[in-house]
Design goal:
Blueprint lengths: L10 E4 L9 H10 L5 E6 L11 H7 L7 E6 L7 H6 L2 E7 L6 H10 L3 E6 L17 E5 L15 H14 L4 E5 L7 H7 L3 E4 L1 H4 L5 H14 L4
Parallel strand pairs: 1-8, 2-3, 3-4, 4-5, 5-6, 6-7, 7-8
The structure holds D-xylitol-5-phosphate and zinc ion (ZN).
Length: 231
């Protein structure tokens, strides 16, 4: 195995699930001005998870407003039905849940064929090992640190050994893959997730509930993650 450096930059990724939907476009503009790295769209179908959120048309309507990349986190039972429309809506990273993909290998290949980066998300109950044989087909592994469906839930510190196992798998593979965490990430939890091996952090409540605004929330999260002990 080569000793390729798999270190990835720290990224702060706001989930707009927590936004005021009557001002979604304004929120995207303000998040970009606040210094975030990408917009994280939580796409929910009311079936894979109990909640229903945005589809491609809503995402596309905000696309012309900002330059930041968009990523779609598909919490849907049939992700293959909407891959094309998500890419057409302007999402350059598409993450599917391993639990929703009978043919995960094929689905990741399809995302890449469409010209997007491919990600795999794992529910808390899904073991790290399900990504072992698709590392060559993914740019991003997303470890859920809550059960998906809603913002504002508590961070599951019990996921940290899984984050660490995936970090080791990525390092051993030599591929440049982001390790993202999603759920309950905020100033009190981001250091532990970083030390476990994550480099990309989705934040909904921590971003939208910071009374000092997006720039403050982003800088605070980034500073804590950058100064945390790394594996
Ligand atoms: C949960 C979503 C998350 C969530 C994050 O299903 O995937 O992106 O909205 O929200 P917080 O940061 O509030 O846990
Ligand atoms: Zn998400």
């Amino acid at each position: 195995m080569t000793s390729t450096d798999t270190t990835r930059p720290i990224e702060i990724l706001p989930s707009v699930l927590t936004a005021d939907y009557s001002k979604l476009g304004e929120a995207c503009v303000a998040l970009e001005a606040g210094g975030v790295d990408r917009i994280h769209w939580d796409v929910m179908d009311g079936n894979f998870v109990p909640n229903l959120s945005f589809g491609a048309d809503i995402i596309a309507s905000t696309r012309p407003l900002i330059d930041l990349p968009f990523e779609a986190h598909l919490m849907v039972t049939e992700p293959t039905w909407i891959l094309e429309s998500m890419v057409a809506a302007g999402c350059s990273r598409i993450t599917v849940h391993a639990e929703a993909c009978t043919h995960l290998h094929r689905t990741l290949g399809r995302i890449r064929e469409l010209g997007a980066a491919a990600g795999v998300a794992l529910n808390p109950g899904t073991p790290a090992e399900v990504v072992a044989d698709v590392l060559d087909l993914t740019e991003l592994i997303l470890v859920m640190t809550v059960n998906p469906g809603f913002g504002g839930q508590s961070y599951l510190a019990s996921m940290e050994p899984k984050i660490a196992r995936i970090r080791s798998m990525i390092d051993a593979s030599g591929f440049a893959i982001d390790l993202e965490v999603d759920g309950g990430i905020g100033p009190a939890t981001i250091a532990a997730a970083t030390s476990a091996g994550a480099n990309a952090f989705v934040a909904g409540s921590a971003m939208f509930r910071d009374p000092e605004g997006f720039a403050h929330a982003t800088a605070e999260l980034r500073t804590i993650a950058e100064s945390a002990d790394k594996r």
